[in-house]
Amino acid sequence: MPQKRESARAGGPRSLYRKYGKRGLDILLSGGALILLSPLYLVLALLVRSKLGAPVIFCQRRPGLNGRLFPLYKFRSMTDARDENGALLPDDRRLTAFGAALRSTSLDELPELWNVLRGDMSLVGPRPQLIRDMAFFDERTMRRQSAPPGLTGLAQINGRNNISWEDKFAWDLRYIERVTFAGDLRIIWRTLRKIFTRADITAAGMATAEDYGDYLLRTGQITAAEYKRVLAETEI
């Protein structure tokens, strides 16, 4: 019994905020933001259409709560440029100056507020990773899928893309162990400060964030054969 009471006080599974208040905060803030920012959405949509073409919205399936897949929405930030064989060029060659500006200001992620309103995501939680990233998760890392993915989280205010994957996951797991109203408000406020300073958008020397599997391969934690096998078995 003492352990259960401690879990409830610490924002564990029995926390009233985690069970009821968090979703209410998501609806209130995401709905209000969608209304207030609607003129900005229109301007950004027109700019994306004129500079990068259609479609304006980039949609990609991501694993959410308990691994359930959902369509994540972002403003498009890269072109569809391909090589002579029809394969997409590397990210750094498809990311234009305009697209880089969208990413550096996090404006490309504004459509995710619709995901929050729908209930696919929360304002605060572990960031939704690629399907191919989750294919490389171990049992401990899979625990991050026990919470709804977030628009921002502890990892985003403590280094974002400029910290190791191990540190990102450690911050994610720390968050889901203690979810509180005050903590979520603090994370949202610190996220806004990060956005205005454009801090930690990408790791040094990389145009976009590195996939988890690519990181494991680059750091020698898996072999090339293991890397290819996992990707071959992953539905993308």
Structure description:
- The protein has about 240 residues and is mainly alpha-helical.
- The protein has one domain.
- The protein is about 50% helix and about 10% strand.
- The strands form two sheets. A two-stranded antiparallel sheet has the order 1-2.
- The longest helix is centred in the N-terminal third of the chain and has 21 residues.
Strand content: 5-15%
Which structural category do the helix and sheet elements fall into?
A: mainly alpha
Shape: globular
Which consecutive residue ranges, at least 5 long each, have pLDDT under 50? 1-14
Determine the fraction of residues in helical runs and give it as a percent range: 40-55%
- SSE pattern, N- to C-terminal: HHHEEHHHEHEHHHHH
Number of domains: 1
Amino-to-carboxy terminus distance = 44 Å
Assembly state (oligomeric):
single chain
Biggest sheet, spatial arrangement of strands: 1-2
SSE topology:
Elements: H1 2-9, H2 16-36, H3 38-52, E1 57-63, E2 69-75, H4 91-94, H5 97-104, H6 112-118, E3 122-124, H7 131-134, E4 150-152, H8 154-157, H9 165-177, H10 181-197, H11 212-218, H12 224-233
Parallel strand pairs: 3-4
Antiparallel strand pairs: 1-2
Helix pairs in contact: 2-6
List descriptors.
disordered N terminus, two-stranded antiparallel sheet, 50% helix, mainly alpha, 12 helices, two-stranded parallel ribbon, 236 residues
Summarize the structure in short.
By secondary structure, this protein is mainly alpha-helical. 50% of the residues lie in helices and 8% in strands. It has helices at 2-9, 16-36, 38-52, 91-94, 97-104, 112-118, 131-134, 154-157, 165-177, 181-197, 212-218, 224-233, and strands at residues 57-63, 69-75, 122-124, 150-152.
